[in-house]
Amino acid sequence: MHEPQLTMVSLSFKTIPLKKTNELAAFTLVVNKNFRLSSTKKVPEHDYIMTALSKPATMTLPYDWNGEMGGNNEKVESCLGEKHLLNIFLKELRQIDPDIILGHDLLDFGLEYILQRMKVHSVNGWSRLGRIKRKDMPRMAAQIGLARAGHDACNGRLVADTKTSAMELVKMRDYNLTSLCEEQIPEQLSGLKPHFLYACKNRKEYLPEHIVEAFGSSNTLRMLLQENINDCFRNMLISSNIQSLPLAVQITNICGNILSRTLSRGRAERNAYLLLHAFHKKDHLPPPPYKKKTVEDGDKKGPKFAGGMVLEPKKGLYTNYILLLDFNSLYPSIIQEYNICFTTTAMQAPPDLPKTMEEGILPFEIKKLVNRRKEVKKLIKNEKNADELARLNIRQLGLKLTANSMYGCLGFTASRFCAQPLAALVTAKGREILEATKVFVEKMNLEVVYGDTDSIMINSNSTNISEVMKLGNLVKKEVNKHYRLLEIDIDGAYKSMLLLKKKKYAAIDQNGKEEFKGLDIVRRDWSEIARNEGRTILKLLLHEQDEEEGVRKIHEHLEMIGTEAGKQRI
DNA sequence: AGCTGGAGCGC
DNA sequence: TCTACACAAGGCGCTCCAGCT
């Protein structure tokens, strides 16, 4: 089917303090009338920009304000006050009639806020936010403790929220717009001017008092509005960099759910749709929807069943190669290997393996996802066209994410298909497999130094990488003999490793790449200096093959830090 | 000294 | 046809720290 051309607006706005709340002071809409949801293009396109500014209740506009941005003919629509501004906003929205609204933190804040301001001024046309004419506003957070009314009001349009999408797709410390710009806007992009990209990457944060100050002169006001315009482009750049829209389309195609919900809600609902379709197709009655039996049942803190196994680490500094093996997609594989399903397995504790030979619906669906991904990967190998390659890559990612989220949803009490006995059975088999692998590897006269859930680390007692890989291949071959489709693979080899505790280690791999896991230096609750110095010291230790020499260098470095700190230079 | 609860990681 | 209700939401394992008895 031909993909439709859609209209997208990127929305950004600024507010200014007013009594106990904030008043809407300005907004920008960047409009693109040729947007394609599946496009993997990295350079955003737009047709025009529209900016409007109001004279806030507590402010005056600069005496020489002429409503112009200067330079490139960008006009600013100047309004008499907030209500006027809101009406202009609705008028524009009506004219543009966007299919997609893009912005940062729109779902949990932005849209709700705008709706709230419309309510304050009793703005009549509020339902123009969406595509259904409505009389009564949906109830808002202040009334019922929820912040989804703004989204609800945008019915008929997709809301693409860079914060929500980034939280799902990329691991970061903070998801505020400034951090997203730093980390998710590329250094360079052919087709975009470097200085513009640089400006987008380095966002200027406006605190409420800075916004007030910006109204002091035409120049500073123009700078404020320019930043607001840039925020629109920033969101476009971030969105295309994390590819949240094409990925959402893929996931929605895979699961058969609703696109707007892929963009706004959690993963359990997508899984539920996939399974409901699967049950229906097989003409099989799905299990009754899971309902929490008691309040404690769902809300009680703490684990409801046992999870993965963590092997006791043999602590220490290793300067031989440590071989790293792990099972490919352990939990999805276990579901297939043992035919674990609602239709095959008794819901009981302790759980027991199914006796039936008939393939369950859950393993069948996972198998389909895995096989489809294999097909896509095959295509990727032979594809030369960059656009098509990007599209295929998104597709395989969607398939992988969907397969991997199945187990999580089995254990999730709010899921339609919550089945904790099944989740418990999956993890029980996982523990059994890891333990058996450890015992088996030790029987090969090899030393297992650590392992977590699906991985195992073996001391190779060798400093020769090709020898180590040979050993790895041997272990892999032997372990894989035990299973029908479960598969262990070589993940790499650590040239040196400092193993401190469960889930805490530092290492350098065969290619010189550093890995720091769980240590204080990767935790944000430690000061920057402690993290940096810890890192420096670990590098000294790991890169220095001679332990004594490493320790000497560390002492030297710490002396230096102590002296510098004493002089208050740090 | 020992507990509990949470934050923030790893998988 | 109208009103009230509630809409959020992958899992567990392992330190480590603060706060308490």
CATH superfamily of the largest domain: Ribonuclease H-like superfamily/Ribonuclease H
- CA radius of gyration is 28 Å
CATH class of the largest domain: Alpha Beta
**Strand tally, please?**
13
Low-confidence stretches: none
CATH architecture annotation name of the largest domain: 2-Layer Sandwich
Can you give the mean pLDDT?
Answer: 92
Tell me the domain tally.
3
Q: What is the CATH fold-level name of the largest domain?
A: Nucleotidyltransferase, domain 5
Helix content: 40-55%
Shape assignment: globular
What does the largest sheet look like? 7 strands, antiparallel
- What is the CA–CA distance across the termini? 61 Å
Figure out the total of helices.
20
Strand content: 15-25%
Q: What structural class should be given to the helix and strand makeup?
A: alpha+beta
Q: If you had to describe this structure to a student in words, what would you say it looks like?
A:
This protein is α+β, with helices and mostly antiparallel strands and 570 residues long. α6 (177-184) crosses α9. The protein contains 20 helices and 13 strands. It folds into three domains: 6-240, Nucleotidyltransferase, domain 5, CATH 3.30.420.10; 316-514, Palm domain of DNA polymerase; 519-566, no CATH class. β1 and β2 form a beta hairpin. Strands 7, 8, 9, 10, 11, 12 and 13 form a seven-stranded antiparallel sheet that branches. It has a six-stranded mixed sheet with strand order 4-3-2-1-5-6, sandwiched between helices. The structure holds a DNA duplex (11 and 21 nucleotides).
